[in-house]
Input
Amino acid sequence: MSLPEIIKKAGITEDRWQESVDNHDVAREEYDGVFYYRVMRKIGPLGKGSIVTEDGILFDFPRIARILHLENGLKNAYTQPFYVEEKVDGYNVRIVRIQGKVIAFSRGAYVCPFSTDRIADFLDVQKIFDEYPDLIVCGEFAGPDNPYNIEHPPYVQEDIRFFTFDLMVKNTPENIPIEERLRIFDKYSMPTVRRFGCFSSSDISSLKEIIKELNDAGSEGIVFKPTRREEKTLKYVTFGSCLRDIRVTAPLMAELPSEYFTHRIIRAAIYSYEQLHELNHKNFTALGEVLLKPIYESVSKAARGELIRETFLLRFRKEENVQRMIGHLQRCKVNFEVLSQEKINSYWHVRFARKCYASYEILQSHLGGTSHVD
Output
């Protein structure tokens, strides 16, 4: 199918499409000989993050609303039963076959060379896409050795794993109905997020037990998926997840919006009110430590003239994808250097350092006595 036919099916005229291209609302991209358009601003039904190819449209993955009070949030949202799954702390990708090549797209519609390289470790991509050529596998890469997310699930202690959580189809914004989704997961032995079963909003005691278990284990939270299509998917996170988010980002507090931290403190407060029914010295100490200790360490580094940086290790199946990943980071304006690259058994192990110039310069300015108005 030609591109004009593809966009026409989405209700977009050729003139409107060309106007969007001219205004840089969409960008024409190429990866390994595959050409596609990345949507950067909403055009008709295509939201930011959508991908347009001659094989069809990948609609943007929907943002999931959050509830902070578990019991009241569920009662407000659901009249029918819903499925409960673990929310895995990683980064979101959509896996699809385009022009004969299996590619992993990020939420922002960039091709991730690292995820594209590694997906065959976790999915039988040949069989899946031969039998379902229009399928889009939505999932989470998670683990300590990834390029985007410092935090990771407690049960992934090295490298990465892939967890499928949804399925979509080209040319439609809707997810495949959940019962059909589960059947396909099992048919192809896809690794999935942990599934707890089907519940209703009256099962609050059981759900609180699940949350407590996940919080004690160091996991992020849960996702609620409705059986009634008119109702929406929701997410809810643990107290520990709020603290871990703060801890891993606090070293760069000087350059981040204050809302990032206040939102997580509010989540932790409401979680404590509903689930713990009190605050104690341990809670106060934990919050103070994750807020103050990392930024204090960044101040100390800046005072010594030591650049603030984050290091991460990536494992690649193919050496050419190392260079593609380097190009991807450069395109995304990430300041980094490659510290080492070596072949160990079947994988190329590449260690990177992300350089945090903005935080370093802000803290150096403050330490130097520069005045400012806040």
